[in-house]
Structures are given as C-alpha cells and as structure tokens.
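retry 2 of 3: previous attempt timed out while embedding zinc ion. Reduced batch size to 1 and resubmitted. Inputs unchanged:
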Amino acid sequence: MLGKWEDAPDSPCPFCQKRLDRTFVINDTGVQEPGAWTVCSHCGAVLRFTSGMTLRMATAEEMRGLGRERMSALYNFRNELMLAKAARN
Ligand SMILES: [Zn+2]
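retry 2 succeeded.
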C-alpha cells in the first residue's frame, strides 16, 4: 500500500497553522505512524509525522531520499488537493 486516506491528525500544519481536513498517508503500511509522509490539505506543504505524532515539514534531504514512486504518489495527491481547493474557490 503506497498511500491511503486517513482521518486528520490532531496536530496542525506547521507551515500554515491550519488543522488538516483529512490526510493521505504515504508509507509502506498505510497507517499514520512516526515517519509517515503526508501533505497539508490547505497549503500543500510536504509533511512528516514525528515520534509524538505531530506534523513537521519534510527536509529537502528527506525528499531527495524518498524515491521516484513515492514522490510521484505524493505529488499526484498534492495536485488532487490543490485542484479540489481551486474548485471550491
Ligand atoms: Zn498547511
């Protein structure tokens, strides 16, 4: 499982400070867990879950190490979110 919709985490986005509506988790297990990747549903920031299950910005180095398949899943999801957001405005 490369990615899966999940209920939003309690933690707000560290970039825009808004609480995510829901989240799309990208990792091997498809569950929210430390180290899993997601994208902010408001600003599109690429985020990771910390050991305390809060959200932090992914670093450039982490993004380089993500790999083509996961990176493409992440960006497809990000595009979907941004298009849905634009359609609402
Ligand atoms: Zn955000």
